[in-house]
Design goal:
single chain; 674 residues; alpha/beta; ten-stranded mixed sheet; nine-stranded parallel sheet; 17 helices; 30% helix; binds beta-D-galactopyranose; binds zinc ion
């Protein structure tokens, strides 16, 4: 973690421009009380910094920077380019984004710009340059924050400017050769053959299904354009403000799939992420754990910053559930448990006007005489107590492979079943492994897999030859590899791999499927062979024959009655499993039990379905994080010092229902990880 940042920073977005000057004094006093040491400033301040095309106003920001510095608070300074001011879009309506059905998205909300707009870029870079020149050596400056959640509302723009940029991107991808584009896009189908790049458009609303490879390339292009917006600002900052790290906040969470963050990560000096729970989901902590592990994957295993989450309710879901007592502390510490080195929130003070006025903040509308505020102060104390773990990171022997391109491909239209969801198997296997105390890394298929004893390959619909070979090599070398249905189906161009499914993994798995047999809505089948009695499956089945694999479990009924549902094959030093149906949670748990036993993988002490346990490993010490999501106390066999309470733990730690604990473990040289 860059040294300019406080260890295990605590704070959030600070939008002083929404408040009269009198509030600012109080803000700093209360930030002091709450132990805030890092704030993100200026995210939506463009119209304040550049009120007209030819005037700049930095006085208020100078005052903020100086005042925060005097209060001992560091600043993550935004480049303020996230939301263009009305004067700019009024002058240049051609920079407004357009949806796939041709509707312009107008100003009045935020992020009303086309990511490919040269006008936007010119003005954004002027602002970024002005800020860098003014603040590059300000003592409060700890981090640069480019834009905000790039692509949150404008990830895909279908305007004419974007169309031209898409063609430029395609010319590069296909080496100026339109025949290559025709091949890749399979345009022999439906008379789609192009005679010149000039004829190519984004996949705008069409009479029926748009060409899938056109859609896929447009998703790649759109992600690249957004990343480019980051890169050009970053380069300005590196030039004018060398030594100050640059980030932009990702949105690694369930519903966000437009940006290929596993490729973006390497462009950032430090990865930061925003995470919001879906309030309607009771078991949101599982999605949180998965997303946090994926965020660490984007950061190549290094610690990262939790740039935003919420103290309580948000405003943008249909029903915005408030967090219950203790929930914020558990959520925050869970991010730290999975590698976050900062706990920041949106936002410091709950707004009194604007679309987000019902969004919680560190300082609620009701003020400081509230349970919410007391929990904020308590969280800050907890973070101080566990600060020594900053800089360490989880190191695991199990990997779940995740690929945004496979996600895009998997969710395209015209597939065998709309019930196949890309994140579904990944999250469920991650859940089952975590429940058994197996720490999991969520990584790109191009990652070096040699350190993993267990490699889970969920729904890798689209896979390159290279990645498929690396997965097979991991099994050969001794790993247990588990592939789930609708994997290995197509290549990078979304062309089916012929000869039987699951194309790219057929040889590795020793199976050959001649027909996909998706189930109907609500249809379930029983699967026999995973422990005592049957388990239930839905969504998927296959007409699968064994070509070297053994059947572990079999469909009893349904379209694949009597056929294998789970298979296993010994490969070199390792094994390769295939799961040809969507097992329910019980089935997944039983499968995972067998995998864990087969691999002999290390299990963290005390973990269970509702007791989340992770270990962060540093240079000279390691810390066991325990988060008890359940209604019963948890007992964890461990030796060491529990940092939240300061208590010595000799053999057994009791974590109360809803409680958290962090133990610096006593380890002998023997069982200490290298
Ligand atoms: C994020 C955004 C913040 C705020 C927050 C509300 O998308 O970066 O500015 O809008 O959500 O949950
Ligand atoms: Zn556009």
């Amino acid at each position: 973690m860059p040294t300019s940042l406080p260890a295990l920073a605590f704070g959030g977005d600070y939008n002083p421009e929404q408040w009269p000057a009198a509030a600012h004094e109080e803000d700093r006093t209360l930030m002091g009380e709450a132990g805030v040491d890092l704030v993100t400033l200026g995210v939506f301040s463009w119209a304040w910094l550049q009120p007209t095309p030819d005037t700049w106003d930095f006085a208020w920001l100078d005052e903020q920077m100086d005042g925060l510095h005097a209060a001992g608070i560091k600043v993550d300074l935004a480049t303020a380019t996230a939301s263009p001011p009305p004067w700019l879009t009024h002058r240049h309506p051609e920079m407004l984004p357009v949806t796939h059905d041709g509707r312009t998205l107008f100003p009045g909300g935020r992020q009303a710009f086309c990511p490919s707009s040269p006008v936007y870029r010119e003005h954004a870079l002027a602002l970024c340059t002005a800020l860098a020149e003014r603040y590059h050596d300000h003592p409060a400056l700890a981090l640069w924050h480019v834009s905000n959640e790039l692509g949150c509302h404008n990830a895909r723009c279908y305007c004419d400017v974007s169309a031209a940029a898409f063609r430029t991107w395609l010319r590069r991808r296909y080496g100026e050769d339109v025949a290559r584009l025709n091949d890749a896009w399979g345009t022999a189908f439906w008379s789609q053959r192009y005679d010149d790049f000039e004829q190519v458009l984004p996949p705008r609303l069409a009479p029926t299904h748009a060409n899938p490879t056109q859609q896929l390339d447009f998703l790649r292009f759109s992600s690249d354009q957004l990343l480019d917006n980051f890169v050009v600002e970053r380069d300005v900052l590196h030039r004018i403000s060398p030594g100050v790290p640059v980030t932009t906040n990702f949105m690694v969470m369930r519903q966000t799939m437009e940006m290929d963050y596993l490729r973006w990560g390497r462009e950032l000096d430090v990865v930061s992420n925003d995470h919001y729970l879906i309030a309607a989901e009771e078991s949101g902590h599982r999605e949180l754990a998965f997303s946090a592990d994926l965020t660490r994957g984007t950061a190549d295993g290094r610690p990262w910053l939790l740039m935003e989450h919420s103290t309580s309710a948000v405003n943008w879901q249909p029903r915005n559930r408030a967090k219950r007592p203790g929930e914020m502390v558990r959520n925050s510490l869970a991010h730290v448990a999975h590698g976050a080195d900062a706990v920041l929130f949106f936002q410091w003070r709950a707004s009194r006007a604007g679309a987000e006025k019902f969004h919680s903040g560190l300082l609620p509308h009701a003020g400081t005489d509230t349970r919410q505020w007391r929990e904020v102060v308590e969280l800050s104390r907890v973070l101080d107590a566990v600060e020594e773990a900053a800089g360490s990171t989880p190191r695991n022997e199990a990997a779940v492979l995740f690929d945004y391109e496979a996600w895009w491909g998997c969710q395209l239209d015209s597939h065998p079943s709309i019930d196949v969801s890309y994140r579904d198997r990944a999250e469920d296997l991650h859940r089952a492994l975590s429940a058994q105390g197996v720490g999991v890394d969520v990584v790109h298929p191009g990652t070096d897999l040699s350190g993993y004893r267990l490699v889970v390959v969920p729904t890798l619909y689209l896979v390159s030859d290279e990645h498929a070979a690396a997965i097979a090599a991991a099994a050969e070398a001794g790993a247990t590899v588990v592939v789930t249905y609708f994997s290995g189906i197509v290549d990078e161009n979304d062309h089916v791999r012929l000869g039987g499914y699951p194309g790219a993994f057929r040889d590795l798995l020793g199976v050959r499927t001649t027909e996909l047999l998706p189930l109907l809505a609500g249809e379930t089948v029983q699967v026999d062979g995973l422990g005592t009695g049957t388990v239930t499956a839905d969504t998927w089945a296959e007409d699968l024959e064994l070509v070297g694999a053994e059947a572990v479990a079999t469909h009893l009924g349904g379209p694949a009655s009597g056929l294998p549902a789970v298979t296993r094959r010994e490969v070199g030093e390792g094994t390769a499993w295939y799961v040809a149906t969507r097992l329910d949670a019980v089935g997944t748990d039983r499968l995972v039990e067998r995998l864990v036993a087969e691999t002999g993988i290390e299990r963290l002490p005390g973990a269970g379905p509702l007791v989340e346990v992770t270990r962060r490993v540093g240079e000279d010490a390691q810390w066991l994080f325990v988060i008890n999501h359940g209604h019963a106390q948890a007992e964890v066999p461990v030796h060491g010092v529990e940092l939240v309470s300061g208590a010595d733990v000799t053999g057994s730690l009791v974590v109360p229902a809803g409680g958290v604990a962090v133990v610096r473990e006593d380890v002998t040289g023997q069982d200490r990880e290298a």
